[in-house]
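Notebook p. 47: complex prediction with zinc ion.
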Amino acid sequence: MRVTAGTDVQRRRWLQWAGVCSLGGAAAAASSASVPVPRIVASFSILADITQALAPAGAEVSALVGPNADAHVFEPTPSAARRLAAADLVVTNGLGFEGWIERLIRISGFRGTTLVASRGLRPRMAGRGLDPHAWQDLANARLYVANISAVLQQLWPQQAPEIEQRRLAYLAQIDALDRQVRLWLQPIPRERRRVITSHDAFGYFGDAYGIDFFAPQGWNTDSEPSAAAVARLIRQIRDQGVRALFVENISSRQLVAMIAKEGGVQLGGSLYSDALSGAQGPASTYLKMFEHNARALAEALARAA
Ligand code: ZN
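Predicted complex, structure tokens below:
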């Protein structure tokens, strides 16, 4: 994924403009005007990667909340506002995930198209609110792909055939991965499929693949878990024999490590919940992230069995 800082975009555009002027040729101006570079901003790294996979070649796609960062507690910066202002399209998750986005769009002066990628999805409930982590189910990813590719084709009709090819190729990868995940989990008895993570981000994954996830924090990360919630998890580890505990890339490992120690079990490793890893990490794209999580879960549950 090419993540471009706002200042670089502006500098490059200025240079392009300066270049066109210095050439002074109508042909150069016409060719740069006839193929405008799509400028797309997604709210967080996972959505930026899915969008990049579908966007026509040459599109500039960037994420407001980058790899390994927590979108729940993101505080928009002036540079985020400038990046939005220069974009043609903003892609958000919706379902209350980006509580900060509407205000940011308003103050940035953004005049382009806004897409809520989860549009039309049937959300699961988490406590009293909606669970926003819908990307943790590959069936929902298919809907994200449909929504994103439709708006890309609408905005850049000249590149519609290329976008369509990318859409079909990406859907084929999603389907292959879904079959693989089901094969990995198949040998694990349903009653053993219990996992603890830092925050409640895997409800959709659990519904799709038959795993019960427990977490000391709710679906949001903006508050500390209660002592009662932590004590309840430690009891669950002992009483129900939960053997698989994971930290997340966006959360501190301290709390889950403490729960693991109190419960007398080993940590199963890291899961990627709300953000990708860096380019060198095991979850540098959405599909790699999903594959990494599924494999790590299957291995930890198999060890626990
Ligand atoms: Zn989350």
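Notes: The beta strands are 39-44, 60-65, 89-92, 113-116, 125-126, 129-130, 194-196, 212-214, 244-248, 267-271. The chain has two domains: 8-179, 187-304.
Next step: compare against the earlier run before touching the bench.
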